[in-house]
Amino acid sequence: MRTQLLGTLAVALPFLASATLAGEAAAQGTPMSVYDFKVKTIDGKDASLAQYKGKALLIVNTASQCGYTPQYAGLETLYEKYKDKGLVVLAFPSNDFGGQEPGSNAEIKNFCELKYKTTFPLFEKIDVKGESAAPLYKYLTSLPGKQGGPITWNFNKFLVAPDGTVVEHFDSKTDPTGAVLTQKLEQVLPKS
In this structure, are 42 and 5 located in the same domain? Predict the structure, then answer.
């Protein structure tokens, strides 16, 4: 009986410890997933990423005057192809690399809608690196292994599963419509 009880405790304790840590982190306001963040839209309205629970997300730091700027077209193509299957592309303009996003939020919105006909959600211009990085990006870059790491340039992409887990961080060179990203995306799209 004692051996059986010890065996049960050995199985249960790690689970209880992890549940306790998760509860403590949530109580202290430590983010547990991307859904815990509040951001501002490109129009300056408050928004919660919790509204995207159950969707696959592609979070991208963007810029209007970058060699990778044509990826806006690929991001829109990806969004159009997969939005009915549960994908949302979330674009966060940033001027952190080479001063390649100097415009105001209104100018950025106008540029994206006129030049690239984007329909996915755009958010206000933010910092994505360093001490002034937005809380969402501090969280994303703090994740271990291939999930996180520093933003290397404009158009880094974070793929997020419908449960809010960051699956992978892709660098700027990763084509939004290429096989590397789309194969991983198809694996995490919500099951209908």
Answer: no
Whether 16 and 97 map to the same domain: the answer is no
C-alpha gyration radius of the chain: 19
CB 71 within 8 A of CB 175: yes
| Per-residue pLDDT tens listing for the chain (192 residues) | 555 544 443 444 333 333 333 333 333 456 689 999 999 999 999 999 999 999 999 999 999 999 999 999 999 999 999 999 999 999 999 999 999 999 999 999 999 999 999 999 999 999 999 999 999 999 999 999 999 999 999 999 999 999 999 999 999 999 999 999 999 999 999 986
Number of structural domains found in the chain: 2
In Å, what is the CA distance from 20 to each residue of 17, 23, 25, 152?
5, 5, 9, 35
Please check whether residues 103 and 148 belong to one and the same domain.
yes
The set of catalytic residues is: 66
